[in-house]
Design a protein that fits this description.
This protein is α/β, with parallel strands linked by helices. It is built from 10 helices and 12 strands. Strand 1, helix 1 and strand 2 form a beta-alpha-beta unit. The longest helix is centred in the first third of the chain and has 22 residues. The mean pLDDT is 96.
Length: 313
């Protein structure tokens, strides 16, 4: 029997953001008529009093917690305290109030930054506690991982049905292209497109290009969030991933090709590479949720480049 969203009230944090906007569209398509999206200018979710007001206003059956303070390597390096506090505080307040009002399900989106710096490939959920995260990502990753522990504790003590997803690096249209806080794909797309506009002969990229990453289109990730809300009833974390890992060097070359930049690529090895490798195992998501992902990486990159060109002004 399919899940009926039509009579569910949903609190969707981060619903105006990158991933959240796709989840909001899927909720609407599924017939969900009551979706409450708290905006940061009205509700500071790091404050308990604001979260209490959010729950009063939304009266949710289901909470989808997607909001996060996050950025790329540079932003993580420059904001370790801010990212730890804001991510921990938001999650703690939202989970605590969820158990007070008795929500049916709390879906929390974590981060691949929680995995150890040197983790066996592919990353399996059981490996989350096998070491310390990569240093530039550690405060953010540990804050998010603490919410997994909180949800497991609240499941045991209070019966809160909290579930936790660990998506691999997301990308796609509507991403954050701000050079001060963007992740690697939007940063590289902007770099290439602007270089073309200026007729630059070269672009400079951070690190050595040797690190590898795996990427998941935000629309596929939104499908994973919906499936978790509909099907998942376990306290164990579940990875969301698809496709193969790619080195940053090969990623740059692919974006250069798809964007049409014809100049040289210069690597600044004085800048950090971040975690050496990232590739998540998706077996648990496949078995539990039927989640595989459907958008090819090359096609997803084309979409993202086209979207940026059409919307950057």
């Amino acid at each position: 029997m399919s899940f009926d969203w039509t009579n569910k009230r949903v609190l969707l944090t981060g619903g105006a953001g990158f991933l959240g906007s796709f989840v909001a569209e899927r909720l609407a398509k599924a017939g969900c008529r009551e979706v409450f999206i708290p905006r940061s200018r009205e509700f500071n979710l790091t404050k308990e009093s604001a979260v209490v007001e959010v729950y009063k206003a939304s009266r949710p059956d289901i909470v989808l917690h997607l909001a996060a303070s996050v950025g790329g390597i540079g932003a993580n390096r420059d904001n370790p305290g801010k990212f730890f506090y804001e991510n921990a505080a938001m999650g703690i307040n939202l989970i605590e109030q969820a158990r007070h009002v008795g929500v049916e399900k709390f879906v929390c989106v974590g981060t691949t930054c929680s995995y150890p710096k040197f983790c066996p490939i592919p990353f399996r959920e059981a490996d989350l506690w096998e070491g310390y995260p990569e240093e530039t990502n550690a405060p953010y990753g540990i804050a998010k991982k603490a919410l997994l522990v909180m949800l497991q504790g609240y499941r045991e003590q209070y019966g809160l049905n909290g579930v936790y997803l660990v998506p691999v690096n997301l990308y796609g249209p509507r991403d954050n292209f701000d050079p001060a806080s963007s992740h690697v794909i939007p940063a590289l797309i902007r770099k290439c497109v602007e270089a073309i506009d200026r007729n630059d002969l070269e672009i400079v990229c951070w690190g050595t290009g040797s690190a590898s990453r795996q990427f998941l289109h935000a629309e596929d990730a939104a499908d994973g969030v919906m499936l978790a809300a509909e099907k998942m009833n376990t306290g164990e974390p579940v990875n969301l991933a698809t496709g193969d890992e790619i080195t940053i060097k090969n990623l740059v070359e692919l974006i250069v090709e798809l964007s049409g930049f014809g100049g040289r690529i210069i690597w600044d090895a004085t800048k950090p590479d971040g975690q050496p490798r990232r590739k998540l195992d998706n077996e648990r998501a496949e078995k539990m949720l039927g989640f595989y992902g459907s958008i090819s990486f090359r096609e997803g990159l084309k979409q993202t480049i086209d979207w940026y060109r059409a919307n950057r002004k």
